[in-house]
Description:
Elements: E1 6-17, E2 20-31, E3 35-40, H1 46-54, E4 61-66, E5 69-70, E6 81-84, H2 96-101, H3 111-124, H4 140-152, E7 158-162, H5 170-187, E8 190-195, H6 198-204, E9 207-212, E10 215-220, H7 222-227, H8 232-237, E11 242-252, E12 255-260, E13 265-270, E14 280-285, E15 291-293, E16 303-313, E17 317-323, E18 330-336, H9 337-342, E19 351-355, E20 362-364
Parallel strand pairs: 3-8, 3-9, 6-7, 7-8
Antiparallel strand pairs: 1-2, 1-4, 4-5, 9-10, 11-12, 11-14, 12-13, 14-20, 15-19, 16-17, 16-19, 17-18
Helix pairs in contact: 3-4
This protein binds adenosine-5'-triphosphate and magnesium ion (MG).
Amino acid sequence: MTQDETMISVRNIGKRFGSVVAVEDACFDIRRGEFFSLLGASGSGKTTVLRIMAGFEAATSGAIFIDGRQMDAVPPHQRPVNMVFQNYAIFPHLNVADNIGFGLRKLKLDPVERRRRIDEMLELIKLPGFGDRLADQLSGGQRQRVALARALVLQPKVLLLDEPLGALDKQLREQMQVELRALQRSIGVTFVLVTHDQEEALTLSDRIAVMADGRVLQVDTPAGLYERPCSRQVAGFVGNMNFLPARVVSQDGGSARIDVPGLQTTCSISAERLARFGSDISLAIRPERMTLHRERPADQANSVSGVLHDRMYLGERTQFQVALDDRGTTIAVSSSTTVAERLGSIDPGAQVWLSWSEEALIPLGND
Ligand SMILES: Nc1ncnc2c1ncn2[C@@H]1O[C@H](COP(=O)(O)OP(=O)(O)OP(=O)(O)O)[C@@H](O)[C@H]1O
Ligand SMILES: [Mg+2]
């Protein structure tokens, strides 16, 4: 990414609170106009990184550049960013228009221009005509939209959003996700979203930084994280994944032979993908990358038999648990329910077959 394309550059940021290491050596760039998410479990350091970007917290080490300018000595109100907090932070005693216009007071705009900007925001958040409504007469979703408008009316280059949809119920949250994405596309402002909800991150983001224990584990597109996770931790955090112990048995030039006892097979994988690992590795495979059969599939190069343990109907998809051996190795297989129905009823205890393509196997270190 060239310097012109970069909106935020996080350079080796560390943050300690006394003896607690909240963030350690975080290093990544966010592009102009990008929808970027920080994804991680509770306590992984997401809010701390966001607060350092906003200037509410000073980093213990490292530096942050926003729009090419180093931010260390720049106070929050002079940074080209604005932040939306999880708990809405809108004033219940003010009406919607005054809430949105709150930050404009400092700019000393004439009343006509002020009104114009507020109306523009009301249109943007699809609440035209709501200006006079008191904030505590709004639904949760409407309040959240007002909080967004209040941050956007100041025309920041970057909008920082800390779990902005966390307090909404599932249905409203999904609806707001669609709106948030559409809003970001239409105004082109760089969004940095903090979330612990992997589905939310995958749905909304151009790219995601996965965090754990204060460290950034991987920065990638949603598809990149899903298809090419760099570690077991990332693979387990994003979507469902099966892990099988495996061993590198030989290396020949660019390719390595790997023994996978669970699948009773060996496979070859480019040595480049194994470079960082020792000989004991894990092979990861997504449940939907395996296919279930009633009979041995004659036309598949890779297949193994097992015993069906459980079948779970999940609506659009059906998930099967299959025991691969008598040592307790089980594997999850997921297929669309339409496909699963074509197999007819299979009872737990029945012998089944699984097949997969070699590209579906992801080698990972045992970290
Ligand atoms: N002001 C503080 N003083 C001491 N420790 C802090 C402070 N703020 C955060 N921490 C610690 O730093 C770590 C990271 O906290 P942070 O709030 O960044 O996590 P998070 O990823 O946002 O979590 P959550 O999803 O629960 O909001 C945690 O262990 C937290 O307890
Ligand atoms: Mg947080």
